[in-house]
Specification:
By secondary structure, the chain is α/β, with parallel strands linked by helices. Helix content is 48%, strand content 12%. The protein folds into 2 domains: 227 residues, Spore Coat Polysaccharide Biosynthesis Protein SpsA, Chain A, CATH 3.90.550.10; 68 residues. It has 10 helices and 7 strands. The chain has a 7-stranded mixed β-sheet, sandwiched between helices. The structure holds uridine-5'-diphosphate and magnesium ion (MG). The site of uridine-5'-diphosphate (UDP) has 17 residues, from strand 1 and helix 3.
């Protein structure tokens, strides 16, 4: 049995109906790693495929290959598949690669070389994407927006081709479809990130698993990531600020109402001011209460699990 020390590289591959490519992908990835003389494991996560993907993988693993398979009961999505792979990965370095051969396994040595320069995560950058034009434009806009909002200066946040130090993959949680924002989540923990250009190929077999809706979902995920990065440990600052602003508007409307009534002697029923006052004050109180509720939730989340709101690089004399 291998143990943790003996595996240098884990390759994690999420696959969903990729029967056309898994065989070739396996042989090319293992070819590269054999040539480099690395000890490795290749973990395929079959994300509920309904084609022959799983059977082909089983066939390959029966030939005593360094291949491990996790089969999901149904399609849980790429984030879930990556999470399962991360959980099992034993290698000192963990590489993620798409199962559709759009990424080129020949790039693996470049990733290994780059991460040895002292990074915790190296992200691929498909400088010349071989995808339909609509997807290229959407991806450009996204990456610009996400770099701006999250502060992570990588060109291609959603590129699946990446290499991590093992510790990093054990420390990030990919809920929902947050795999698109892995660099932001990693950066947020204080890890060092770099990127390298990679070649990209058009899809040879099968078809893309994501349609047009990814634009809207991706945008909502960006809002989530931004919110989590800024306010996860201090939600009252977000809700409370909005609450205070609303209360301020409420009191202004209230004051105006009184001035109308007592100074100008105008019947206040003629204005919308009383209604606005009540609306703003109620909303303001609601927001502050929501903030307090969120503060309670976050304490329940961190304290019993012994989780810390910080990430430690090293301890000395401890
Ligand atoms: N994938 C997955 N589960 C899903 C959707 C996709 O494991 O629910 C895998 C898919 O098999 C492929 C990778 O994620 O290996 C990227 O998917 P795809 O090529 O469809 O995405 P695109 O290249 O269009 O961004
Ligand atoms: Mg693809």
């Amino acid at each position: 049995m291998e143990n943790k020390q003996t595996i240098e590289v884990s390759v994690v591959v999420p696959v969903y109906n990729e029967e056309g490519s898994v065989r070739e992908l396996f042989s090319r990835v293992s070819g590269v790693l054999n040539r480099l003389n690395k000890t490795y494991e290749i973990i395929f996560i079959d994300d509920g495929s309904s084609d022959q993907t799983f059977n082909i993988l089983k066939e390959l693993s029966a030939l005593n290959n360094p291949l491990k398979i996790i089969q999901f009961r149904r399609n849980f999505g790429k984030s879930a598949a990556l999470s399962a792979g991360f959980e099992s990965a034993l290698g000192e370095f963990v590489i993620t690669i798409d199962g559709d051969l759009q990424d080129d396994p020949e790039e693996i040595p470049n990733f290994l070389e780059k991460i040895r320069e002292g990074y915790d995560l190296v992200v691929g950058w498909k400088a010349e994407r071989k995808d339909p034009l609509g997807k290229k434009i959407a991806s450009r806009i996204f990456n610009a927006l996400s770099a701006r909002l999250t502060g992570v200066k990588v060109h291609d946040s959603n590129c699946c081709f990446k290499i991590f130090r093992n510790e990093v993959v054990k420390n990030i949680k990919l809920h929902g479809e947050l795999h698109r924002y892995i660099p932001a989540l990693v950066y947020w923990q204080g890890y060092k990130i770099s990127e390298i250009k990679v070649k990209h190929h058009p899809r040879k077999y099968g078809k893309s698993k994501y349609g047009f809706a990814r634009i809207f979902k991706g945008f909502l995920d960006l809002v989530t990531v931004k919110f989590l990065m800024a306010y996860l440990t201090r939600p009252i600052h977000f809700f409370g600020q909005a609450g205070l602003l609303l209360l301020f508007l409420g009191f202004s409307c209230g004051t105006a109402t009184l001035i109308y009534k007592f100074v100008f002697k105008i019947p206040i029923a003629m204005t919308q001011l009383p209604l606005l006052t009540i609306f703003f004050v109620l909303m303001g109180i609601q927001f502050i209460l929501m903030g307090l509720l969120a503060e309670i939730l976050i304490r329940i989340y961190y304290e019993p699990r012994g989780k810390t709101p910080y990430s430690i690089k090293e301890k000395i004399h401890l």
